[in-house]
Amino acid sequence: MTRALLLFLCLLAWPGKPDARYERSPDMATNIWQGTTGNWDTGANWSLTVKPVTGDFVIFDGDISQQSVTSGQDNEGAVLLSGLWSQPSYRGSVGTSSLRLVVGFQADKQLVWRGAGSLHLTSDANVRVVCDSANLLDAVSLYGLEDEIICKRGKVIVTATHAANVGHLRVIGGIVELLENGAFDILRSWLVSGEVINNRPIDTGGAEWVVSGGLWTQSTNGSTSNALTLTGGRVVWNTGTTLAVAEQYGGFLDFADTGEEKTLGKLTIFGGDFRLSTQTANAGFHDFRPDYPDIP
After folding, report:
1. Using an 8 Å Cβ cutoff, are 279 and 262 in contact?
2. Is the pLDDT of residue 69 over 90?
3. For the whole model, what pTM was predicted?
4. Under a CB-based contact definition with an 8 Å cutoff, are residues 103 and 77 in contact?
């Protein structure tokens, strides 16, 4: 092999400027929790040696630290993160029910909680919250304005402090419990598998509410819900609530699980089954399941 060829091959292998996609920039910094104390504000607890600032992507991976965050996390409302992610290997918690993580997110960003501990969050409507955790007691508790929730595993609690409508609720596993807060309701929801325990009304104006599997228990007292499409699973109607409009293609609609008075405004049924109690006021019912008789 000639010297010229060797020189040519060495030049090909010589490292050039790093790919810009992998460079750390001020608006896209990855800040990894490595805390030896529980203080969010302590710079030494973070891989960048400063606490997260606007634009940071925050990670709790459990590789260096299993320490829970217990202080300093409740005054970060002016910070707009580009994302927050926890790994299943992280067993600590972030915040408590009385001292929540208060932080904002840049538009259309995502929070993914996969840790085994608990997250207590007060945030804004920009963030999409995804729960994929083995924690079936209290993986994620929401106290702010969070608009979009996706639950794959674990338990999500939308607390009574959550003073906003839930714009999009998608449950494909795990448990979601929504506690009542006045007039705030759910605008659009889909249950594929798992369980929803709902104490809020379903929006009566243009809502989309689809249950295709799992168990949905509706327990809001004195409210009206609308636009149920039931194709599978089970919907249990509790307390003195009104279901204004529903279409059923499968599954089981149960109005007799509890004895309280309920109101069924209009049910059109094409498949599945249902059960009404004697305390159910039934204003409109259309059953298309039986075969039509021949004309005599």
Report:
1. yes
2. yes
3. 0.86
4. yes
